[in-house]
Amino acid sequence: MTLATLSGGPTLDTLRERLARHGYVEVDEHTLDGVAARAAQLVLLPLDNPAQRPEFADLLVILPELLRQFGDDAFTVAYACPPAAVALARRFGVLRQPALVFLHFGALAGTIEGLRDWREYVQAFARLCASGAATGVTETKGVTR
Q1: What InterPro entries does UniProt report for this protein, alphabetically (predicted)?
Q2: How far apart are CA 43 and CA 98, in angstroms?
Q3: Which of 23, 80, 110, 129 would be a feasible disulfide site paired with 85, CB 3.0-4.6 Å?
């Protein structure tokens, strides 16, 4: 059971509002490159319909807490809503949602796909931060590609 199930489930607009309140930037396939080029470490969250994928509500609780572990200024966070999210997920090879895409000055550093336990998230964030420029590492639950 997810947090979305307990609360009756958020809408895509509700998720957007929560992300914007955290100061995260909404991007699309036309604006991402400009934002990412200026960010040493950017985390992109390609959103999907929370009615079909309630795990997104869980990730929106986890992500701000996780970012605090690395310092408030360690990452720029961006999100994309459908249909741009679909195009961006495809562009970065995301196969499983929810996903976080890591870019280093616009170059793909890797992805984390699927929900994780806390320790796995912290370890994956640390690995992707340390990797710097494009390594293309994908962290899918139980599998690294």
Answers
A1: NiFe-hyd_mat_HyaE (IPR010893), Thioredoxin-like_sf (IPR036249)
A2: 13
A3: 80
